[in-house]
């Protein structure tokens, strides 16, 4: 098992992981496709990074941006639960944060994703805000 920086060839697999994990949670959100990820990464190349967990194929990924001494975890997804993939990605994030002298890590979790909320709380993250929205369709 290796955690490495993303390659262009990985973006298709990443978009499929994102779609399979997010669709059940939102039902409305359009899946993020590989070309959109690529645009986001290029636009934020100086302050963002994306890593994949590769074990005979991509089993998970994370994407974060660094801003004023803080890391903002934009996405983290794994394809199988209970294998330790998420924990390995977070441990890698913590190592990156220590190298970069980061003082805080921020993330947002879909309120329907109770499993992710529990996962992050077990790792020491705490709730500090509640985001709200209204669909006007």
Our measurement of the CA-to-CA distance between the termini, rounded to an integer number of angstroms, reads: 44 Å
Q: Count of DSSP helices?
A: 4
- Taken from the alpha-carbon principal axes, the silhouette is globular
Helix/strand/pairing class, anyone?
alpha+beta
Could you characterize the architecture of this molecule?
- The chain is an alpha+beta fold and 137 residues long.
- Helices cover 36% and strands 25% of the residues.
- It has four helices and five strands.
- The protein has a single domain, classed as Gcn5-related N-acetyltransferase (GNAT) (Aminopeptidase, 3-Layer(aba) Sandwich).
- α1 packs across α2.
- Strands 1-2-3-4-5 form a five-stranded mixed beta sheet.
Topology:
Layout: E1 2-5, H1 11-26, H2 34-43, E2 48-54, E3 58-67, E4 70-78, H3 85-99, E5 104-107, H4 114-122
Parallel strand pairs: 4-5
Antiparallel strand pairs: 1-2, 2-3, 3-4
Helix pairs in contact: 1-2
Short recap of the structure:
By secondary structure, the chain is an alpha+beta fold. The protein is 36% helix and 25% strand. Strands 1-2-3-4-5 form a five-stranded mixed beta sheet.
Give keywords.
single chain; 137 residues; alpha+beta; Aminopeptidase; 5-stranded mixed sheet; 5 strands; 25% strand
């Amino acid at each position: 098992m290796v955690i490495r920086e993303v390659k262009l060839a990985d973006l298709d697999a990443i978009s499929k992981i994102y779609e399979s994990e997010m669709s059940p949670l939102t039902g409305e959100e359009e899946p993020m496709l590989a070309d959109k990820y690529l645009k986001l990464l290029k636009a934020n190349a100086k302050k963002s990074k994306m890593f994949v967990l590769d074990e005979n194929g991509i089993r998970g990924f994370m994407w974060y941006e660094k801003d004023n001494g803080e890391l903002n975890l934009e996405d983290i997804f794994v394809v199988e639960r209970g294998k330790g993939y998420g924990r390995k990605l977070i441990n890698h994030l913590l190592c990156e944060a220590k190298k970069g002298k980061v003082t805080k890590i921020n993330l947002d979790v879909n309120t329907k994703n109770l499993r992710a909320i529990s996962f992050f709380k077990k790792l020491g993250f705490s709730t500090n805000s509640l985001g709200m929205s209204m669909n006007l369709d």
